[in-house]
Amino acid sequence: MTNIDVNLIAEGIKTAIDRISCEVEPSCSDALRAARDKEDSATTRFALDVMCRNIEYAKEAHLPVCQDTGMVVVFLKIGQNVNLSGGYVEDAVNAAVKEAFAPLRKSVLDPVSRVNTKDNTPAVIHTQLVRGDEVKVEIMLKGFGSENMSAIYMLNPAQGLETAKELIVSTVKNAASNPCPPVIIGVGLGGTFEKCAELSKHALFRKIGSENPDPVLNALEKELLKKINALKIGAQGFGGSTTALGVFIESYPTHISSLPVAVNVLCHCSRAAEFTVTEGGVRYE
Amino acid sequence: MSEIKLSMPFDKNELKKLKAGDNVLLSGEMFVFRDAGHKRLFASIEAGRPDIDFAGETVYFMGPCPAQKEQIMGSCGPTTSCRMDKYTPYMFDHGLCAQVGKGKRSKECVDAFVRNGGVYFAAIGGAGALYSKCVTAVKEICYPDLGTEAIRRITVKDFPVVVAIDSCGNSVYNE
User: Fold this and answer.
1) pLDDT tens track of chain B, all 175 residues?
2) What is the set of domains in chain B, with CATH numbers?
3) Among the CATH numbers 1.10.3470, 1.20.120, 3.30.70, 3.30.1330, which is that of A2-22+64-143+271-284?
4) Chains A and B: how many Cβ contacts under 8 Å?
5) Contacting residues for A26 by C-beta, under 8 A, at least 6 apart
6) How far is the C-alpha of B36 from the C-alpha of B62, rounded, in Å?
7) Is B126's CB within 8 Å of A114's CB?
């Protein structure tokens, strides 16, 4: 057994939130600059230029990139040889979120009473036991202008992949200008209802420009990106050649009766990070 | 691309000259509130005692981050406007001049802009840090318990927006 103090995980989460609230994931900001430089429409280029300048200014001045500093989503991949000490891990995560959000916007509330929790807790925590003796943490600040545009479909096998593709593209089309395009699209294919949604969220951790190791999914990602960009929604919905910066798919076996398809929409400001916690401390990627 | 400078409160004749796609720099005062602020304002209207008078004014759909360091207001980009569509025709029919937000609007909203010579501006979603530099003053108006969703009044200088839907109903958004 390896002992890992949950306070190390909390430390990593605090550091990550402080940084990613102000710094867009680098592959995403690079892709935005490239989109600006090739944009023909003057209004859209203006929008992309404001977006790029905002990202630069936020990083330099260490200010939140967007006022919607989101709801915190954490994937905890805990090695099965790890003994977590120093308290309950979810309490440690939420204590870190509370502290890190002191200077940020508190956007989390009870869905029924609509009363704000006033510290942006709780985080949404997905825990998975994995092989090994480390804890890998993936963290994202998820804004809800884009989250609201996400969708899940439980298709019949007869509808097949063609219908799945049509629905993925139409979800982006219907979202139009609302999710702050150019968007990043996470797709879940297969599993059960909730597994499919989780796959689509996890897919959003991929770096822009990265290839899917599965050649079939890789080709599907490229096909979908092309179709989505052909919608010409453009940055902020002002028209233009870049509607999405990337489409990322994760799949899982499903039941003979179904083809679940989840589409999770992310805005142009990807705020995500990964780090690993070992017995010795926190290692940032 | 040339920018038109306009001051708020607006001269309605100036608003009528704007065309969808124009780049505008806004200066002056506007109200700021979003979902919960609208809901509570409308409860006060229904009770016959409106908590603010928005005739002749502009409303910006935004809930800020707390101010950091020497900031007057924290990051303050727009939120998605369509969630406020159900409140919008009433507000324009009762004197509101303009709204600032992001994203498409319903047909009922566009009709209300046309009927009243109103304009809908799009701020650039996500550009919260940059917009905070344009805010020169902020006043808390009502509903402080709503936190980021309280009603505020801000003064801005050269706040960059695009005319998203003009007073003739033309839109910058692809159909």
Assistant:
1) 578 999 999 999 999 999 999 999 999 999 999 999 999 999 999 999 999 999 999 999 999 999 998 899 999 999 999 999 999 999 999 999 999 999 999 999 999 999 999 999 999 999 999 999 999 999 999 999 999 999 999 999 999 999 999 999 999 997 5
2) 3-11+18-165 (3.20.130.10)
3) 3.30.1330
4) 143
5) none
6) 11
7) no
